[in-house]
Amino acid sequence: MLRSSDTIAALATPAGTSAIAVLRVSGPDAARLATEIFGSAPAPRSPRHGDYRAKNGALVDDVLATFFPAASSYTGEDALEISCHGNPFIAQTLLEDLLARGCRAAGPGEFTQRAFLNGRMDLSQAEAVMDLIHARSERALEVANRLLRGELGRRLNELTERLLTALARIEAYIDFPEEDLPAEDRAIVRHTLEGLVQGTDRLMATSHYGEMLRDGIKTVIVGAPNAGKSSLLNRLVGRERAIVSAEPGTTRDYIEERIIVGPHSLRLIDTAGLNSSPGAIEKLGMAKSLDRVAEADLILLVLDATTPLPAFPESVTKFLVPGKALIVANKIDLLDAILFDIKVYPKVPCVQVSALTGKGIDSLVTQITQLADSFRPASHEDTIAINARHADALARARTGLEAALTKLQSNGPVELLASDLRGTLEAFGEIIGKVDNERMLDQLFAMFCIGK
User: Fold this and answer.
1) Taking a C-beta distance cutoff of 8 angstroms, is the pair 221, 330 a contact?
2) What phi, psi does 102 have (nearest 5°)?
């Protein structure tokens, strides 16, 4: 565990030249440093303009400093923030001076870790800080803000309170072993546990959506060679990202780019063409294409509108279903009528475009946005998108609840029933940080950036 009794300092803004740079200090010496550097104790939460003089008396920069008492700081400790000119040399000189005055260089995520340890936020809120920093879309930002404001913690606290009520009822009979859990109490506990399973399932159902928000919606462009897949990628990206040639099979490996479509972030993946008679190298590319299709959240099947419909393997067509795929009839600038049945894949929307001229691309973007919107969980007004760590803990919690229900229905010993529920309670606690797991905490905060 990182030490919390010393005073830490770090640059809070990215390295490089900018208008301003910000340094953060947190710990018991923050007030002393503010007085030592600026000559008198600063008023709490009131920015102060002044000269920053190094320990040797040399003038370094004209700065703005703000002191935050522990009760009103991010970390729950006395803190000092110094804004200087964004010259990397100036920022580094100030940081080195702070270290010379007794500060220690902060580790990754140490400011947020101290905020957690000092009760300023729960663990799910601390993780949301990283989600907020790395949010790539409007939807990701929206959900990160909801997590940062403690919505997941509130849901878990509600589940925990209901679980504790059931556990208290059961443990009352452990204290009096001559008594058996009566049928009436068993029915009450069963009803409570079934409700807890449903609540846990609702949270677990948001796991994949959370992955899409954090990593981007995996959108795979697939089709026959020379159908215009790379041209479509370039059109959607807005630049010549992929090589385009009249020669079929130009793309031998997949190409990935990130784009924003409406409120969504997409991982756009251009794949090798699916050739019915591929060469040796093409076979390798096609194998990768099929792997990407199997992993896709969204599939764009690009068809050449000037040619008859090609045959695709079942490993592709089985994924061409409503809610997961769009048919893109390309090259409509070259003909008056499409040469294949536009409803060849029933109920899968078909959009006619020209990747060359841009015709129909706006309609395609609209269709992609609507499909991406449908990935949102049903109760989207208060969507909580959990991460992989949350999902693992919830899965263990659910296993405990199911085991408890099985014992309850078979009139199993109340001691074993209580043991299952304590395991569930511990799993819920891991999500918001009520379980003291030092190693897990260190690993989690090590993923943060310095200064946060």
Assistant:
1) no
2) 115, -5
Please indicate, yes or no, whether residues 342 and 202 belong to a single structural domain of this protein: no
Please give the average per-residue pLDDT across 259-276, as a whole number. Answer: 88
Name the 3-class secondary structure at 26: strand
| Structural domain boundaries enclosing 55 | 8-120
Q: How confident is the model at residue 286 (pLDDT cuts 50, 70, 90)?
A: confident
Rounded Cα gap, residues 145 and 149, in angstroms: 6
Residue 109 belongs to a domain? yes
Cα→Cα distances 37→70, 81, 230, 251, Å: 20, 13, 59, 61
CATH code for the domain of 107: 3.30.1360.120
Same domain, 183 and 220: no
Question: Which tens digit of pLDDT belongs to each residue from 114-128?
Answer: 999 999 999 999 999
Determine the Cα angle at 191 with ends 190 and 195, to 5°. Answer: 115
Same domain, 109 and 177: no
Kindly tell me the burial class for residue 238, based on how many C-beta atoms sit within 10 Å of its own C-beta (0-12, 13-18, 19 or more). Answer: exposed
The DSSP bridge partners found for residue 328 are 302, 351
User: Within 10 A of 65 (CB to CB), how many other CB atoms are there?
Assistant: 22
Distance CA 393, CA 307 (A): 52
- pLDDT, greater one: 409 or 300: 300
Q: For residues 351 and 224, state if they share a domain.
A: yes
Q: β-strands 104-105, 79-86: how paired? A: unpaired
Same domain, 341 and 325: yes
Q: Count CA atoms closer than 13 A to 298's CA, side-chain side.
A: 28
pLDDT digits 0-9 by tens, 81-136: 999 999 999 999 999 999 999 999 999 999 999 999 999 999 999 999 999 988 98
Of 200, 260, 97, 234, nearest to 428 (Cα)? 200
List, as one string, the DSSP characters of 310-326. PP--HHHHTT--TTTEE
249: left (phi over 0), alpha (psi -120 to 50) or beta: left
Q: How confident is the model at residue 285 (pLDDT cuts 50, 70, 90)?
A: confident
216 with 266: CB under 8 angstroms? yes
Q: What is the CATH number of the domain that holds 427?
A: 1.20.120.430
What is the total count of domains within the chain? 3
pTM above 0.90, yes or no: no
